[in-house]
Design goal:
binds adenosine-5'-triphosphate, Rossmann fold, 36% helix, six-stranded mixed sheet, four-stranded antiparallel sheet, single chain
Length: 235
């Protein structure tokens, strides 16, 4: 890896219910490095720990052991308040279900991360509108999420994740609840975004068509990551 990695994970272990008879080790001494500007897909069976890994990468859940470095920062060495600010500035999340706020318009949902950071409404609106344009939602800005299609809602959620220009974007099954025809443009847009912004993407998916946009595909199995080719996955 020629550049210093943006994401550097080592010795990552996560055990749910440690010290109980039901203890379940989902991640087991896992290592992972992601270069700046890379798209990495993580696949694996249901229950293999993909979402757990993504939550830990994003500082939403703590590991039992191990370290996660993002850029210069040791994520779990930060106190909760510092971590929460770091997350808001450095990481964008997109989940399978978009979690848009129903009482706000598409544009207001997209501006939310910038407003939390205290950015002026005017500046935030300009950037949010540009992101909605990029995601081909220019004419949906004023609409409430309840009036948008599933694919449109998910694109609004992607725009919101990109609002603060995060260095790292984490996507958990971003098109998992969409049909193939609705999902395909979103897959293309992830590639376009990387080209235009140079951001780094780690995405979790069961969908080979989405994994196909990645530079590398990893399979999570028995708590560890292994490189695979998509042909192997299909086999
Ligand atoms: N908070 C928790 N407490 C106990 N067990 C948990 C918790 N969160 C997840 N697990 C268990 O850890 C395992 C991995 O869950 P995870 O959601 O990371 O899997 P996944 O690979 O993302 O699955 P899927 O593809 O079905 O979304 C599962 O067996 C799950 O039941």
């Amino acid at each position: 890896m020629p550049n210093a990695p943006l994401v550097d994970v080592s010795g990552l272990t996560k055990t749910f219910g440690a010290d109980t008879p039901q203890a379940l080790t989902v991640l087991d001494d896992l290592s992972m490095q992601v270069a700046p500007g890379e798209i990495v897909a993580v696949m694996g069976e249901s229950g293999s720990g993909k979402s757990t890994l993504l939550h830990i990468l994003g500082g939403l859940d703590r590991p039992t052991r191990g370290t996660v470095r993002i850029g210069e920062r040791d994520v779990f060495a930060m106190d909760d308040e510092t971590l929460s600010t770091f997350r808001n500035q450095t990481i964008g999340f997109v989940f399978q279900f978009h979690h848009l706020l129903p009482e706000f318009s598409a544009l207001e949902n997209v501006t939310m991360p910038a407003r939390i950071q205290g950015q002026s409404q005017h500046k935030a609106n300009d950037r949010a509108q540009a992101l909605l344009d990029l995601l081909e939602l220019a004419d949906r800005a004023g609409q409430s999420p309840s009036t948008l299609s599933g694919g449109e809602k998910q694109r609004v959620a992607i725009a919101r994740a990109l609002m603060n220009e995060p260095e790292l974007v984490l996507l958990d099954e971003p098109t998992g609840n969409l049909d193939a025809r609705t999902a395909a443009p979103i897959h293309d847009e992830i590639e376009t975004l990387r080209r235009e912004t140079g951001q780094t993407f780690v995405l979790v998916t069961h969908t080979p068509a989405l994994a196909a946009v990645a530079d590398r595909v990893l399979r999570l199995e028995h708590g560890q990551l292994h490189p695979i080719s998509l042909d192997e996955h299909a086999a």
